[in-house]
Amino acid sequence: MKLLSQKDNNHRLFLTDNILNQIYNNSLFLCEKIIRNKINIRWTNFLHPKNIDEQLIQIMKQSGCRSVSIGNDTASEG
Fold first, then answer.
1. Are 41 and 5 a contacting pair, CB within 8 Å?
2. Residue 36 and residue 47: Cα distance in Å, rounded?
3. For the segment 31-47, what is each residue's pLDDT rounded down to a tens digit?
4. Which residues face 8 on adjacent strands?
5. Predicted confidence (pLDDT) at residue 7 exceeds the cutoff of 80
6. Taken in order 21, 59, 65, 2, is the CA torsion positive or negative?
7. Cβ distance 41 to 64 under 8 Å?
8. By C-alpha distance, which of 73, 72, 74, 58 is closest to 20?
């Protein structure tokens, strides 16, 4: 992410991994790394409807997340 944010002055990224937050701690870890490394990037992503709470939303916002998409296909248990 850091290299992408520096290359060609690119400061936007769209993550298309709909399981970003399926392992809750991994989501927090990613956001904390972005913040700690002062990566200047705005990003959007897909989220699974499970494992979304106020803490995750706040840290995602702090790390540069500006929007999320939750599709009905991500609600599938299987």
1. yes
2. 22
3. 999 999 998 889 998 88
4. none
5. no
6. negative
7. yes
8. 74
Residue 1: the pLDDT is 66
Q: How far apart are CA 27 and CA 22, in angstroms?
A: 8
d(CA 63, CA 71) in angstroms, rounded, equals 22
Distances in whole angstroms, Cα of residue 45 to Cα of each of 24, 49:
15, 12
| 12 compared with 67, residue with greater pLDDT | 67
Render the chain in DSSP notation, one character per residue: -HHHHHGGG--EEEE--TTTTTSHHHHHHHHHHHHHTT---EEEEE--STT--HHHHHHHHHTTEEEEE--GGGG---
Structure tokens at 16: 């298309």
Residue 4 tokens, joined: 């992408």
Q: Which residue has the tokens 């409807």?
A: 49
